[in-house]
Amino acid sequence: MPGPESGSKSGAKTGSNPGLSVDPVLEQALSQFRQSVHAWSEAVYSRPRTPVQAARSAWRLAVGWALGCVLLAGGVSGIAYEHHHRQVLARLALQARQAQQRRAAQQRADEDLLATVDSDVSREVPAAMEPLAQLMDEDTAQ
Amino acid sequence: MAAGTAVKPMTAELAEETAAREFARVVESHRPQIFRFLLASTRDLDLAETLTQECFLKAHRNWGRFRGESSAMTWLMRIAINLQKDHWRNRRMQFWRHTRANAVDPDEASEWLPSGERTAEQQMLARERVQQVWKAMESLSERQRTVFLLRYVEDQELSEIAGSTGLSEGTVKAHLSRAVGKVRAELKGNS
Questions:
Q1: Contact state of A53 with B112 under an 8 Å Cβ cutoff
Q2: Which one of A41, B10, B65, B187 is most buried, counting C-beta atoms within 10 A?
Q3: Using the beta-carbon criterion (under 8 Å), do A20 and B176 form an inter-chain contact?
Q4: What ipTM was estimated for this complex?
């Protein structure tokens, strides 16, 4: 790797740019910039490498996957719960409707039976007791 | 039968071995330069290392197709530039991520001083100038920055830059001129 001291080449080239006039201040700045970048790059390139980044990436990936799985599982169970809840509500509503219908039918049947019993059991009062029966009806009306 | 040693035809195995050796030599000689360019371009150490690795991985996969029409450096630099472009494009798509999260700021990058400056004043001046160039770099377009770095950090000729970037020499010159103009303005603005 070329070191920072190899900046002389750049200085020579910057001035020889066809169509690019480079004043001394700019030329010096560019040369210093070049040397600075070379020094920085050399320092970080030759430093001992540790697989921290890879481990961190793997860790992040694992966390990402875990979080994704949890979210997915949560979403799926939420949808399943909602679906189940709706089914239960629908079943309860149906049961309630059926019970109501059954009660209505029972009530109608009871009324019919009562009417039948009334018509079967009741009989006309003998003619001799007619005035008395009328009196009882009047009392009941009052 | 003719006297002397008979030339053995190159077997596939031997050819593979030769190619692997050649590639290893290329990696050894060009890796620091590719890394340096990517580091200066991204100012992100981890990203530069990752992209450098990807660059050589890609180069290894396509090594058989490299016909030597350009120099290996130009070819590798082209791969590096494309990888960098892809990275920023993908990064733009991932808008929820904080861009340049690991990037070093210009002040920190300019801590690395050229070795020639001896006095404190010279060092301070050099640091300030380097900082100004980094600052000016931030205002350059991606293409201008690439051309600028290849020219003034990697010392490439215009024809080499044209080969690495896939631009014509005239376009390279135009980008370079604009980039230098911005750096000059930054230096003058702060002087």
A1: no
A2: A41
A3: yes
A4: 0.82
